[in-house]
Amino acid sequence: MRIILPALFLAMIQAQTPPAPAAAADPVKTLVERLDLEKYKATIKGLTQFGDRRQGTDRNRAAVDWIEAQLKSYGCPTDRIKYVFDPPPAGGGRGRPNTGLAVGGGRPRGDKIPTGVNTDPMKQPDEKLRALNMQPTMPGPREMVYCTKVGTTHPEEMYIVGGHMDGHGWGEAANDDGSGAALVMELARVLSAPDVKTERTIRFALWNNEETGSQGARAYIAQRQDLQGKENPPGSGQYPEPKWLGMIQHDIMLFDHGMPLPDGTMRKEQRAEADVNIEFQSNSKMAAESMKPAWIFEAANEKYATDYPAAVGPHMTNTDSGPFIDIIPAISLRENERGVQIGNGWDPQWHQPTDVYATYNDKDFRLGLNAAQTTLGAVASLTGATLNK
Ligand SMILES: [Zn+2]
Q1: How far is ligand 1, taken at its centre, from the CA of residue 267, in Å?
Q2: How high is the pLDDT of residue 1?
Q3: How close is the Cα of 362 to the center of ligand 1, in Å?
Q4: Can you tell me whether residue 33 is helix, strand or coil?
Q5: Cα–Cα distance, 92 to 269 (Å, whole number)
């Protein structure tokens, strides 16, 4: 009897319990599941065919064209920002006053590896890649591309989801910022599917000239800030520049192998404790407003990201969300904190000839995918994404 009773009891329960109604499917979860590691890797790989994509070169312009063609193929209508980059002659660098703090604030800890930008072609051992990266940058006209998913009930309001497509250092800019640019393109692909609707608008921006001081993002602000929320033509229901609800930047997403070891080397594998670093800037006019999306993204990570957690920090700096910090809520997502971690040498490929696709393995790429899951989960929720049956 002792053996039979539980089975009998179970049978009685099953007989009396009506079939449970299917739990209402979470459309955001379905969308997040449309992200795919192999597709993300393929998009990064596609970007690396243009070498380091340095601004002001043919390889950079070819990359802008290629990105635009991909966005169009996803069904995401594109447009471009045109501007001129005429940098002052190099030299006479001001340098930062030594405050003991990292750039962006924050106190560095642990062992440090020196960082910098490689400018020596001969440090690239791959001759084909060296030749691809050989054309020097020239001052002059620049372009960047963006595409837009228009909201159904609030087309006049939008979130900007950005990553920078330019790089330097004589590698392939696979991580900085192929990984962030590909993340933005993958989100554009998923959210532009014909069965996806969002109440609010989302703009996917592939900034150019980040590495020279975010001139692409600055040009965007200069040209479009005053157009926000204006219906044009009047009565058309069209808003060429919806009101900016927030700016979410993605910059260098793959590599979190921990701090440098005491002997100046790095762990060979992604550390088990790897995380997605969500940063806002506490020293900005919109600090309180920016903290809110930072925590919304942290919660979206807990809900939707499959492998790696997120951490929130207050020292966002040196990326395209920077020019927005006093205007609108602005955050960035990264593999590490920019100031105290990357600034301390946590990413030895950063701006180096070793930032090539072949350097990374699936554990690295998966961290970038988890950042994509985080942003897709957060932005799809914030914009009221639904799926047509
Ligand atoms: Zn970058």
Answers
A1: 22
A2: 44
A3: 20
A4: helix
A5: 40
Question: Token digits for 288?
Answer: 């309180």
Q: What is the pLDDT of residue 16?
A: 60
Amino acid 19: pLDDT: 58
CA 249 / ligand 1 centre spacing (Å): 10
pLDDT band, very low/low/confident/very high, at 85 (cuts 50, 70, 90): very high
Query: 156: alpha, beta or left, given left = phi > 0 and alpha = psi -120 to 50?
Result: alpha
CA–CA distance from 329 to each of 217, 249, 342 (Å)?
15, 11, 23
CA atoms within 13 A on the CB side of 89: 2
Q: Report, as an integer, the average pLDDT of 290-297.
A: 98
Measure Cα distances from 98 to 101, 103, 315, 317, 339 in Å.
8, 10, 17, 17, 14
Give the whole-angstrom CA distance, residue 54 versus residue 238.
Answer: 35
Partners of 141 in the β-ladder? 84
Residue 306 phi/psi, 5° resolution?
Answer: -85, -25
Measure 80 CA to ligand 1 centroid, in angstroms. 20
Q: How far apart are CA 68 and CA 66, in angstroms?
A: 5
180 CA distance to ligand 1 middle (Å): 8
Locate tokens 């301390």: which residue? 344
**Residues of 11-42 as b/e, b for ≥16 C-beta within 10 angstroms?**
eeeeeeeeeeeeeeeebbeebbeebeeebbbe
Is residue 108 predicted with pLDDT exceeding 80? yes
Is the pLDDT confidence value at 10 over 80?
no
Q: How does DSSP classify residue 374?
A: H
pLDDT value of position 18: 59
Residue with token string 């004589």: 170
pTM of the model: 0.92
- How far is Cα 156 from Cα 242, in angstroms, rounded to an integer? 4
d(C-alpha 351, C-alpha 174), whole Å: 10
